Fold:
Amino acid sequence: MALRHLIFGAAWAAGSAVAASVSCPTNLPLSCQNTTAVSNTCCFNYPGGQLLLTQFWDTNPSTGPNNSWTVHGLWPDNCDGTFSQYCDTSREYTNITAILAKAAPSTLAFMQTYWKDYQGNDESFWEHEFGKHATCISTLDPECYTNYQPTQEVPDFFTRAVSLFQTLPSYDWLAAAGIVPSKTATYTLAAIQAALTAHHGHNVIINCNSNGELDELWYQYNVRGSVQTGTFTPVDPVGSASTCPKTGIKYLPKSGTGTTTTTSKTASATSTSTKSTGAASTTPAGVLSGKGYLYVDTSSTTSDGFLISSGAWYRAGGTPATYTATPNSDGTTFSLSSSKGKCAILSDSSLSCGASVSTASSFAYDGTHLTFQGSAKFYASAVPTGQTQGTIFTSTQAVSLAIAWNSQ
Structure:
């Protein structure tokens, strides 16, 4: 059994703490998995060694972008499902926004879109998360900083929580498995778990409200090193079990982008599968750059659908995946990537995005549609129906289509 009792040594308390910008030794054990005592709790999270990145899906009222879950928090649990809270009342700060505006403005900008309070008071929510949880993370203790300055640990906590959240695109992972927000469809707990475990590598705690509506996910980790600079390793959950029923789970769509948005970056999306009518008029021909959505145009249906993160065509409601367009050095083409990885036209002429793609293909834009090797024509063997996903090809198939870009 792992030994979880650790001692905060007198030498560390005397001032031999590490600075947040300095990496801890790489030979330290993972938190919760040590077999001997580790005295340096500035490089080893104790007692809260099981770190949970938790996410919300708020629909009543709707909060955050329609095509993304939002951050709930980063919580230290005691390796067994128990946890401490409000560990240092002297650090229950009441000016998180001001601290981040000065020390980590890009983190704050992201939080203003993706770390939202459903009641409209983001500052109060962030204060709660820091005071309740961050003050119980040992590596964020003031003693762990050389020449500590008050609030120095605040940007470290929020920046790490944001960076971890960005590696967990729950919406895209579920959508790739055909699990998308719907007012009518229901899903099983096993299907949701399988979709998330396939990417996270371990089970995820999946929570529903009293109406059987999906509303929260808990991803769990052990950490080698400090929370600030250490390596997060996915692990199986401890503590509370999922609260969703085995069947009949509702995954309701959000209505709008939330009622309390104070974002400094745009994260707009449609809540239906109809293609954007503004793509052609708002994005001129040339090299695309930045984030956007890819909509399918067959000129024969009123609900053509969009591309999900794997590069597949989907039409059964929900919202499209976010794609990133990166200009190539030739000045005339660009590459595409999604949360799954780079996008390429494979040897069988199919479009695919994922970790297995080593070299992204080059695309261009004619002012209305994407083009590949000079052609705006793409194909599919059939129009997808229900929960099926259609593969996009560049070689001739039964269905001819085009792909429109809509910038975020």
